[in-house]
Amino acid sequence: MNMIPLISADPVTLTTCPYCGVGCGVKVTQTAGQVHVEGDTGHPANYGKLCIKGSNLGDTLGLSTRLLQPQKNRKPGRQAISWDEATQTIADKFQQCIDQYGRDSIAFYVSGQLLTEDYYAVNKFVKGYLGTANIDTNSRLCMSSAVAAHKRSFGEDIVPGSYSDFEKTEMVVLVGSNTAWCHPVLYQRIIQAKSTRDNLFVVVIDPRFTSTCEFADLHLPVLPGQDVALFNGLLQYLSRNGYADAQYIEAHTSGLEESLAVMQDETDPAWVSEKTGIALPKLLQFFEAFARTEKVMTLFSQGVNQSSQGTNKANSIINCHLLTGKIGKPGASPFSMTGQPNAMGGREVGGLANMLAAHLELDNPQHQQLVQNFWHSPLIADKPGLKAVDLFRAVESGKIKAIWIMATNPVVSLPDAEQVKRALEKCEFVVVSDICTDTDTTAYADILLPALGWGEKDGTVTNSERRISRQRAFLPAPGEAKADWWAISRVARALGFSGFDFNHPADIFTEHAALSAAGNSHPDQRDSASAFRYFNLSGLTALNPQTYDNLAPVQWPVLASDELQNMSRPGTVHESDSSAEHIYRAGNFSHVQTRAKFIATAAIDPVNAISGAYPLVLNTGRIRDQWHTMTRTGLSANLSSHIIEPFCEIHPLDALKYGITEKGLVSVESAWGRCVVRANISQNMRRGHIFAPIHWTDQTASDARIGQVVNPEVDAISGEPEFKHTPVFVLPFFTKWQGVLYVRHGQESAFDEFLQRCSWWTKITTAKASRYELADRRLFTDAIQTVKALPGFKAEDYEWLHYDDTCSQLSHSLVLKNGLLVASLYIAPPDLLPNREWVATLFKRERLSAMHRKALLAGLPMSVQANDGPVVCSCFKVGKNKIIKTIREQNISDEKQVTACLKAGGNCGSCLPEIRGLIKACQHEAVA
Questions:
Q1: Distances from the Cα of 480 to the Cαs of 81, 394, 431, 487, in angstroms?
Q2: What is the mean pLDDT of the segment spanning 659-667?
Q3: 740, 834 in Cβ contact below 8 A?
Q4: CA–CA separation, 901 vs 883, rounded Å?
């Protein structure tokens, strides 16, 4: 808990978590200047549960990395300026670009981290006043394929089901989703339902054996990129064996014959087995289970969406639900799980380059006119803008002259990330709005604007089940930080535009709600010119600041006839009726003809297939305790203890083939770039495939941005990049020595020169110090000379202790000030480096004793300490070795027994799949 100033007079604030698309409710309690975060038991997304990231939100509220005032010029020439100067500069530059190059010379790249009110204001400004659709979002990277699939099948971007369906279903199919790590609260909900109902059958479809697979009844290790072949095969199996719901198909769908006609090969399960890499008995078990189970929920996420065939993958899943009528009913639905907290809210306001606000169509002249009239805007974008990857290519080519980036870090997160860096280096004018002073992207800002962060900003978000929730402020705005909608409105007014006189986020939300109702015809009165859509917030258009502030979570659609009194009491939940929970329950879809469409999906192999030069396939994704590029989660020592370094998982036989050793450094290289990570040899990988996480940046590692390796090929329909299939090769990254450095927080810059000369390093946050794992190709003696010549710690101000043994390639250095440990550096063979946790504890001491000094200099604790191993349970700091020892000694066979003995898994539950995996490993070991 942090000691911080507060603004809320109420000691309890109900808000929402700023991480994944589950959209968990959070209860923030303020006591004597401290903040305590826990789950909101009244929020229907999580009913009080929080994952480890949400539980540690309090650790991320400090100001150490915050941007606190507007700045101009790129590093190293940054200068603080006023908001007036910043906004006028932006307005002048935008007007200059419009006059000289045209409106399409300006672009925006925004984020699912924005609140709906921010998203609405910037979309209105760009499409309705600047008159360009060159605004895209990092949500393009995670859910745009699902959006395109929904629109093709349903006629509107709608997730038809609700979280409650996972508790009513009889079969859960998780496709391309490590749900246990990426959406842990929803996963815990599914596992809780499974524990109370023996008939709930869980299938995981994933190339890797992940933590999610630990509780599954069936794991199907599909080859990357072959999901369409799998679900086309399922569709043919269902059709051929009499499992189609003929009555539903006749009444509510169209296009089935055309869809079946393109799947000639997929009629043979043996062909599907060979194509997908799934053993035929397991494949038929899945087909038969899907066929015979009435209530099936298919949850799909990034493994489906992030693909050059992502849209077709999602449509092939939806096709199977339409064929069997397993949609719009309790416990039966395809379900797209979004990655970010407000990806759905961004879709509502048209945040993508090919959308208009309020689920209206950018290429429909009637819809264009409707929105322009509603906004009273001077013009309206009339053609799709550039999608993310193409947008930054246009920046590099000079087509885009000015870009405003908000709440995202594209130099890290986009594929072929070196291209993004080149683009921003060349761009004439770059504006970045962020909460952090230093990210890989802010380095290129000509104007840098301080934004509000979680706990400070005020507005709404919409989660993956279409539930709108309030994100409330309980902290004062630090420095001169402002809401993103405020900054946009200031620039709009500086350009002479009316329509941006917003004084409160409620003003924006009610305008957003009113636009959702504008021209929204009755569902029975649809025609080709109709603006009907199920997205409708007409029941929320009359909110005032007070009722807006007290708005309780509600699923859309929210119609004007709905009762609003339940939503005007703080802390109460407005449970929508079945019309919101199951939009398509009556079989009336959003297409003009009211029918859902089967979409013909051909099974096409991934582009840029592997070759002799690049014989392996790289798959990327998230890890349990970190989020995106770690600008928030990286501040928490708790969250940095589970997986501390960038890594790649590789199969043992591939490791042997390419000379890779466990925990050795490896270079991962593709046609687009390279990075250096630690090797984890794992049987959970298929041969020929490796996995690496996305989170590390140039701020947290020397050379671990996986985005610079990733294939920039995109889905032709959605524009979503191919993050799951990049041809690569790996080779050992040889170094002459390794080491570990601890530097007390606030003193890190003293070692900048040393780190810049190291071949490889990664930064880990601990409670009192930053820890750096090091490796270098220089001679040992050169490294020692560099350390001793550091200018940051002058001998007259600091006390230095050294121990060097050149013959053994070993060096220990300590820096102290007034008895306080400031830094420690150990260079030694890996097995002689000290216990990391022990060193970290000594930074917590106010003064070191003589015995502590001797022990630190020797690199050995004064007494033998048990090494608990890497942290598994971040909540209670329980390590892997301790859990394994307890499992063996107590002959444990169930994860609940581990919780009873060690508390591990007894709080957020995020570690339970790992604990279950350790139990299985110990059982297999005992049998062997």
A1: 11, 33, 17, 11
A2: 96
A3: yes
A4: 9
Helix (H, G, I), strand (E, B) or coil at 363: coil
Q: Is the dihedral of CA 805, 809, 815, 820 positive or negative?
A: negative
Strands 760-765 and 769-776: antiparallel
User: CB of 376 within 8 A of CB of 499?
Assistant: yes
Is the pLDDT at 7 greater than 70? The verdict is no
Helix ranges restricted to H, 331-483: 343-348, 365-375, 388-397, 410-413, 417-426
Residues 6+ apart with CB under 8 A from 796: none
Q: What is the pLDDT of residue 864?
A: 64
Helical H runs in 197-278?
227-240, 246-252, 256-261, 269-276
List the chain domain ranges.
Answer: 71-141+343-452+484-529, 144-337, 616-732, 737-858, 871-927
Residue percentage of the chain with pLDDT more than 70: 95
Nearest to 134 by CA among 98, 100, 91: 98
Q: What is the mean pLDDT of the chain?
A: 92
Q: How far does CA 120 lie from the centroid of its chain?
A: 21
Closest CA to 664 of 650, 678, 643, 644: 678
494 is written with which tokens? 């500086």
Pick the CATH number of 71-141+343-452+484-529 from 3.40.50.740, 3.40.50.1860, 3.90.1150.10, 1.20.1530.20: 3.40.50.740
pLDDT tens digits along 77-89: 999 999 999 999 9
Q: What is the pTM for the complete model shown?
A: 0.94
Distance CA 111, CA 484 (A): 11
Domain at 871-927, CATH from 1.20.950.20, 1.10.10.1100, 3.40.630.30, 3.40.1160.10: 1.10.10.1100
Q: How far is CA 367 from CA 128, 331, 524, 528, 729, in A?
A: 12, 35, 19, 11, 49
Tokens read off for 223: 């080859």
**Among candidates 473, 508, 543, which has minimal Cα distance to 348?**
508
Residue identified by tokens 């992502």 is 310
3-state secondary structure 582-620: CCCCCCCCCCCCCCEECCCCCCCCCCCCCCCCCCEEEEE
Give residues with Cβ within 8 angstroms of 715, minimum separation 6: 144, 145, 148, 307, 308, 309, 310, 311, 721, 722
Burial 200-219 (b: 16+ CB within 10 A, else e): bbbbbbbbbbbbbbbbbeeb
Q: Where are the beta strands (DSSP E) in 279-318?
A: 296-300
912-927 and 895-902 are packed helices; what angle lies between their axes, rounded to 10 degrees?
110
Residue 130 to residue 134: CA distance in whole angstroms = 10
Unique residue bearing structure tokens 């997160």: 413
β-strand pairing of 810-817 with 820-828: antiparallel
Q: Are 368 and 356 in contact (CB under 8 A)?
A: yes
**CATH (one of 3.40.190.10, 3.40.50.300, 3.40.228.10, 3.30.2010.30) for 144-337:** 3.40.228.10
3-state secondary structure of 691: strand
DSSP 701: B
Residue ranges in 495-556 assigned as alpha helix (H): 505-517, 545-549
The domain defined by 616-732 folds into Barwin-like endoglucanases (2.40.40)
What tens digit of pLDDT does each residue of 182-199 get? Answer: 999 999 999 999 999 888
Long-range contacts from 744-752, C-beta under 8 angstroms, 24+ separation: 744/768, 744/769, 744/820, 744/821, 744/822, 744/823, 744/843, 745/64, 745/769, 745/770, 746/64, 747/792, 747/822, 747/823, 749/792, 750/790, 750/791, 750/792, 750/793, 750/823, 751/790, 751/792, 751/823
